Amino acid sequence: MSRRTPGSTVDIETVSRLLREVAANIILPRHRKLGDGDITEKDHGELVTVADLETEKWLSRELSNLLPGSSVVGEEAAYADPKVFERLSGDGPVWVIDPVDGTHNFTKGSEIFATIVALVHSGETVAGWIYEPIGQTLAQSELGAGVVVDAVRIRLGAQQVHGRCDGVAARHLFERADRDESFIDKVFRPSCAGHEYIQIMRGERRFTAYTKLMPWDHAAGSFMVREAGGYSALLDGSHYDVAQSIGNLLNARDEQSWRRVQSILADDKGGK
After folding, report:
1. What are 40-68's pLDDT values in tens digits?
2. In a domain, 1, yes or no
3. DSSP assignment letter at 24
4. Angle between the 215-227 and 193-202 helix axes, to the nearest 10 degrees?
5. Is residue 199 part of a domain?
6. Strand runs (DSSP E) across the chain, as ranges?
7. Which of 24, 148, 192, 252 could anchor a disulfide with 258, C-beta 3.0 to 4.6 Å?
8. In a domain, 174, yes or no
């Protein structure tokens, strides 16, 4: 997949190269080597490390240079200045960056973390990348061209629903999923959205459901699910808007599974 993204002059292989480069030079040298001064706690127990900050700074510069006139919405920049979110409502191209998705995992020495980048134009995602540095797993997608994971083209949407399925669900959605015995087998709590989107692509999870819709977590992954032929929408059936962080997002490998899981998660019987 070496074509240029629609509406831009960006070659997606160049972005993939940048992700590999930043992982090798900034992220991996700090894996399992963080000192006490390298980790800071943000609001609500969220963590940020020196790897997050340096990766976002480096990618913001390189991606902006790659596409002149573009702007950046990075997780750490948005935390420092919430007005950064307003860029997603504009008409120009915007890079959305999660420098280290799964920061809690990263600080504990876990191998499950990822770097996520999406390119949004006029409020719609037109390309996405998810890179897992430890296993060097790369998922990349562009509008109208499908999804490739480690050189394998992913095709979702044609599955027939047979038996029970495994999935990921957050907060009260986890409780609803965990009560079901008709369709859902095992349900896991989320820890790294990038990794979980790749699990969807590889058939390791049938669905993922999230309650915290920050654009750096979901702009690329939700886009990939749709591009590969799967189904991704808010739990109420409406379109996922990267500029809005309110709502519950449900992704599934096929529409039939999405509707089965949606009927379970939308049922608030038993309370939240």
Report:
1. 998 778 999 999 999 999 999 999 999 99
2. no
3. I
4. 10
5. yes
6. 39-41, 47-49, 71-74, 93-101, 114-121, 124-132, 137-142, 147-149, 152-154, 165-169, 184-188, 207-210, 231-234, 249-252
7. 252
8. yes
Contact between residue 225 and residue 156 where contact means Cβ atoms under 8 Å apart = yes
What's the pTM value of the predicted model, to 2 decimals? Answer: 0.94
Give residue 265's identity as a one-letter amino acid code: L
Query: Which domain, by its residues, includes 251?
Result: 165-265
Report the relative pairing of strands 93-101 and 114-121 from DSSP bridges: antiparallel
The pairing of beta strand 137-142 with beta strand 249-252: unpaired
C-alpha–C-alpha distance, residues 177 and 265, integer Å: 6
CA distances from 67 to 10, 89, 227 (A): 7, 18, 23
Q: What is the C-alpha to C-alpha distance for residues 51 and 79, in angstroms, rounded to an integer?
A: 16
Return the pLDDT at 267: 74
Render pLDDT for 63-89 as a digit per residue (tens, 0 to 9): 999 999 999 999 999 999 999 999 999
CA atoms of 177 and 266, how far apart (whole Å): 10
Residue 159 belongs to a domain = no
Residues 66 and 14 sit within 8 Å (Cβ to Cβ) = yes
Calpha distance 165→261 (Å, rounded): 10
3-class secondary structure, 146: coil
